[in-house]
Amino acid sequence: MPVSSVVRPTGHPGYSETLPREAESAATARRLVRTALAVWGLEDRTEDAMVVITELVSNAVDHGRLPHIRVIVSRPTENRVRIGVVDRSKTIPMPRTDSNGDQIRGRGLLIVDSLTDRWGTDLYRWGKQVWGELKCEPAP
Fold first, then answer.
1. Is residue 64 part of a domain?
2. Domain for residue 7, yes or no?
3. Res 2 pLDDT > 70
4. What is the Cα–Cα distance from 76 to 25, expressed in whole angstroms?
5. Which residues pair with residue 124 across a beta bridge?
6. Phi, psi (rounded to 5 degrees) for 68
7. 3-state SS class at 81
8. Which residues of 43-79 are buried (b: 16+ CB within 10 A; e: fewer)?
9. pLDDT over 90 for what percent of the chain?
10. What pairing do the DSSP bridges indicate for beta strands 80-87 and 15-20?
11. Which DSSP helix (H) or strand (E) runs through 50?
């Protein structure tokens, strides 16, 4: 996907891609997010965005129902980037609050919460989108 030299303040273009519901899709999702941030001149948010998309894809891989997920990267306002993953499960994700001993997995939404300005779940008739928004400063 070519990277444009035109910095767009909001909305267009948005980026999305349907991917297999498998752990390896996180790498493709990270490339998509990195491309969108580069086009929008928001490379300073790349590190946090890479962690957020990885956690969201991981959750969708673990809890989705059908063999595909959809990654969506948008810019709803000039100072926000929204990163989301759509799957066909209608189960609303909840951050774990128990320590559960030495368990490594299961804390992804706590990480998303710590790195994003806000996050949430949009329910659809057929599934949901879990998303996180990062604040950003537009390029001068």
1. yes
2. no
3. no
4. 24
5. 127
6. -135, 155
7. strand
8. eebeebbbbbbbbbbbbbbeebeeeebbbbbbbeeeb
9. 69
10. unpaired
11. helix 46-63
- Tokens in use for 5? 């030299």
- For residue 115 the two structure tokens come to 């790195």
* CATH code assigned at 49: 3.30.565.10
Please answer whether residues 57 and 64 qualify as being in contact, where contact means their C-beta atoms are separated by less than 8 angstroms.
no
Q: Which tokens belong to 63?
A: 């809890």
Q: Which residues span the domain enclosing 52?
A: 15-96+104-135
Q: Six-digit token pair at 101?
A: 């001993």
Say which residue, 107 or 72, is predicted with more confidence.
72
Whether residue 74 lies inside any domain: the answer is: yes
Q: What's the angle, vertex CA 99, arms to CA 94 and CA 101, rounded to 5?
A: 135
> pTM of the predicted model, to two decimals?
0.85
User: If we measure between CA atoms, which residue out of 52, 15, 39 comes closest to residue 132?
Assistant: 52
Q: What is the pLDDT of residue 5?
A: 40
Question: How many whole angstroms separate alpha carbon 68 and alpha carbon 73?
Answer: 17
Mean pLDDT for 22-45 is 96
Q: Could you tell me how many residues make up the chain?
A: 140
Within-domain flag for 9: no
Domain count, the chain: 1
